[in-house]
Amino acid sequence: MSEEEVGFNLFYLLLLFAVIYPPKEFISLGFTIESIFANYLGSESILYVNYHINRSCLMLMVHSVLPIVYFMIYYLYFGVKLPKIVFLQYFWYFLIVLALLLPIGALCLIYYYKQNNWRNHPIAKILQKYSNTPNDPASWTTVAAQINNEFRSADKLTKTFSAITKIVVTENWIMKTSLYFVHIAHQSDSALIAVNTDSHNISIQDTNDSAQFVIIQVTPTRAGIRPFKIRINSLDFKELQDRINRPITILSSVKLRTTIIDRFVEVFKTEIERNPRYRVNQANLDNCFACMVKKPDVKINKQCFDQGDDRCTNCFCRPMWCSSCLARWFASRQDQGERETWLNSKCNCPMCRSRFCILDVCLLEDEV
Questions:
Q1: Cα angle vertex 245, ends 244, 250, to 5°?
Q2: 3-state secondary structure of 45
Q3: Mean pLDDT, residues 128-146
Q4: Whole-angstrom Cα distance, residue 324 to residue 288?
Q5: CA 241, 244, 249, 254: dihedral to nearest 10 degrees?
Q6: Are the beta carbons of 280 and 287 closer than 8 angstroms?
Q7: CB count, 10 Å around CB of 151?
Q8: How distant, in Å, are the alpha carbons of 34, 148, 149, 164, 219 from that of 49?
Q9: Given CB 3.0 to 4.6 Å as the disulfide criterion, which of 215, 260, 324, 363 pairs with 196?
Q10: No. of helices (H) and no. of strands (E), the chain
Q11: Rounded to an integer, what is the distance from CA 86 to the centroid of its chain?
Q12: Are 365 and 279 in contact (CB under 8 A)?
């Protein structure tokens, strides 16, 4: 095999992956199947179900012609070059015949799907099972109309994890798109269980960190509908819980990682436990000025002995903040790229702007 043939094979292999799993650069430039055939697919925001029925068929057709296109281009530029070994020659013929049969099979399958207003399509079959009249062949369109209406609403959760995988949570439905299919589950007929987590190291602006993803299994109780799994960032888990009208069961083996701010809050509380207490009549205090839920439990009272232009000053505000809210305020005023220096840094009082450090934050203690 010549260098030109090797280069062509590598180029086509990369092009193959770019077509099936388009990178961000291709997506931003509009070099995707969805963008090129946008007129045929229609609008996802208006007709969500119809769009993905068309998309799945288009993906199937385009991907099925990729092998035969390879052979056509290869023979056009390099001619017919059969292997010398007889077995490899028959194997080569077999690959060519298979490449020819793939688009023919895809066309036959799409034709089968399209019969009777797409009722044979896998997406339509799932919606048929959620219909109140499952024996009516056209009842799936009623369920599709409900999903389309909910998807048009602004009150939905959409998380895109790759060029082919997206999770959509509407008022009543949970949907996960894949390469040729859309998993659909009705919230009232599904059980959600967080079964596992996985972590990946990431690097953002010269800062090493890790992202945790939660694997949630969605098991529809409706007969004939396969369960599926969704993968969501642990930082978005709370938002997902708020959107779904059913509880998400978390297995005891699943440990959800908190955010950096939440971890700092815990460290902040541990550090101020070492500081002197501030005596006050706590019965006269209102709720925390920030969260309006907890009672204030800290007071900024100068305890450190630092000197200089940036020295801490005393705060004459009455106790107005709980330790959690003050810790979040403290973290929000720090350099987000220098997290290791947060405990040694300073901040201004949210009210009087007095300068303070963690040594100046005192827990409250009732007057005797």
A1: 65
A2: coil
A3: 87
A4: 10
A5: -40
A6: no
A7: 21
A8: 15, 7, 10, 16, 21
A9: 215
A10: 11, 13
A11: 51
A12: yes
Judge whether residue 238 has pLDDT over 60: yes
Alpha helices by DSSP H, listed for the chain, are 3-20, 24-29, 33-36, 38-41, 48-78, 86-118, 122-129, 140-152, 237-243, 260-272, 323-332
- Residue 4: name the closest of 63, 76, 96 by CA: 76
The H or E element that residue 229 is part of is: strand 228-233
CA–CA gap between residue 215 and residue 250 (Å, rounded) = 10
Q: Distance between CA 359 and CA 139 in Å, rounded?
A: 67
Joined together, the tokens standing for residue 80 give 């017919």
Query: What residue has token string 């040729």?
Result: 180
Angle 156-124-193 from CA coordinates, rounded to 5°: 50
Q: Mean pLDDT highest for which of 3-7, 46-50, 254-258?
A: 46-50
**Alpha-carbon span 41 to 34, nearest angstrom:** 7
Q: Would you list the DSSP string of 321-350? A: B-HHHHHHHHHHTS-TT-GGGGGG-EEE-T
C-alpha span between 120 and 111 (Å, rounded): 10
Q: Is residue 157 within 8 Å of 168, Cβ to Cβ?
A: yes
- pTM of the predicted model over 0.85: no
Q: Which residue has the higher pLDDT, 4 or 345?
A: 345
Instruction: Give the integer Cα–Cα distance in Å for 13 and 93.
Output: 20
Half-sphere exposure of 27 (CA within 13 A, CB side): 9
